[in-house]
Amino acid sequence: MFVPPAGQTAMDTQNAEPRFVDDYLLSLLARASHVVSAEFHDRLRGRGVSIPVWRVLATLSAGPETVTVLAEACLLQQPTMTKVLDRMERSGLVTRQQDARDRRLVRVHLAPKGEVMLGELLAAARAHEAEVVARHPDAAAIKDLLRALIARQGRKQRPRA
Q1: Hey, which bits of the chain come out as E strands?
Q2: How far apart are alpha carbons 87 and 91 in whole angstroms?
Q3: Which pLDDT score is estimated for 52?
Q4: How far is the C-alpha of 139 from the C-alpha of 69, rounded, in Å?
Q5: Which residues, in sequence order, are CB contacts of 52 under 8 Å at separation 6+?
Q6: pTM of the predicted model, to two decimals?
Q7: How far apart are CA 95 and CA 100, in angstroms?
Q8: CB of 49 within 8 A of CB of 87?
Q9: Under 8 Å CB-to-CB from 113, ≥6 apart: which residues?
Q10: How far apart (Å, rounded) are the C-alpha atoms in residues 112 and 58?
Q11: What letter does residue 60 receive in the DSSP assignment?
Q12: Cα 101 to Cα 68, 69, 95, 106, distances in angstroms
């Protein structure tokens, strides 16, 4: 299916050769993420919250995680994640604690201030998602497809023992 470039309609491109990126899955995924995320990111900035901080808080909503897991989930390199966590720790949003079972690991925990902020941000994220779903009734099916794509690709990327 051909998707016209932003700012153009199918009528504008009837005689034009479609651009590769307009039908390339990876480009479509990236562009869709960008346009939908931009709305929510504007709301975060309005609250004075950076996107990396939001991603860390949202990832920690299920409980403590290691820096490596956070970096992967938040789409950041580990050194960048460490700097984000340093700032978040200084701001009182998270704490880092040595893992009780494996002392080589450090787990990042939500601090009380982080829990409060997370609650507010999750409510805002859920409201934004509800708006997106209302505009795009196939969103639930798209989420299922994306989860399956991530799971299959993740299995291919892991080294086999």
Answers
A1: 65-66, 94-98, 106-110
A2: 6
A3: 97
A4: 27
A5: 74, 76, 80, 81, 84
A6: 0.79
A7: 15
A8: no
A9: 91, 92, 93
A10: 14
A11: G
A12: 17, 17, 18, 11
Task: Please list the residues that pair with 97 across neighbouring strands.
Answer: 107
Kindly state the tokens that stand for 2: 């051909």
**pLDDT tens per residue, the chain (161 residues)?**
555 666 666 555 566 788 999 999 999 999 999 999 999 999 999 999 999 999 999 999 999 999 999 999 999 999 999 999 999 999 999 999 998 888 889 999 999 999 999 999 999 999 999 999 899 889 889 989 999 998 998 776 655 43
pLDDT the model gives residue 7: 67
Place of tokens 């956070």: 70
In angstroms, the CA 73 to CA 131 distance is 24
Distances from the Cα of 158 to the Cαs of 63, 82, 95, in angstroms?
Answer: 24, 23, 30
Quick count: other Cβ atoms within 10 Å of Cβ 137? 8
Structure tokens at 10: 């199918």
Amino acid (1-letter code) at residue 85 = L
Question: How many CB atoms neighbour CB 74 within 10 A?
Answer: 20
Answer whether CATH 1.10.10.10 is correct for domain 49-156. Answer: yes
